[in-house]
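Tokens as discussed.
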């Protein structure tokens, strides 16, 4: 398990991540995700789309690497934020135009958690409001990350209203 995490870490340092629809934790758990949308004319902020996230059955990094010979995607970081002088949340895009990622690292750039989506569009900006970190997709929805327990949810409305 450790060698698989080490490979993930080494690839991260070389601007690569697992380019599949997954959440990966430092403990080596891999949870498939699906970010999809339905049409909703009331949501003009997200171009009349209501996004949601669903989760598959968890497995391990070892199983992922057994099933995929070359799961890696080149990445580009678009934004980052330091939280409590303890860790960073970073976001960006994969090598295809529709891919986005969010990564949490310690202050030494060691990955503790990551989310990669092939359907989210690139993640472009990060804002912290209270205890929650909001990572904006170029499709204008947000992934809300609780950096304490790494739980995520999707917010479809403009978070500027939450700043007031």
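Sequence:
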């Amino acid at each position: 398990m450790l060698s698989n995490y080490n490979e993930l870490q080494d690839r991260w340092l070389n601007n690569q991540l697992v380019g599949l629809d997954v959440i990966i934790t430092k403990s080596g758990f891999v949870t498939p995700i699906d970010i999809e949308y339905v049409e909703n004319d009331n949501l003009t902020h997200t171009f009349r789309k209501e996004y949601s996230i669903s989760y598959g059955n968890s497995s391990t990094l070892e199983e992922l690497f057994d099933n995929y010979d070359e799961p890696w995607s080149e990445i580009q970081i678009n934004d980052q934020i330091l939280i409590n002088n303890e860790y960073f949340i970073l976001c960006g895009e994969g090598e295809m135009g529709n891919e986005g990622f969010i990564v949490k690292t310690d202050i030494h750039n060691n990955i503790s958690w990551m989310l990669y989506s092939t359907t989210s569009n690139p993640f472009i900006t990060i804002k912290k409001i209270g205890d929650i970190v909001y990572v904006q997709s170029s499709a204008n929805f947000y992934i809300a990350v609780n950096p304490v327990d790494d739980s995520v949810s999707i917010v479809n409305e403009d978070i500027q209203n939450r700043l007031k």
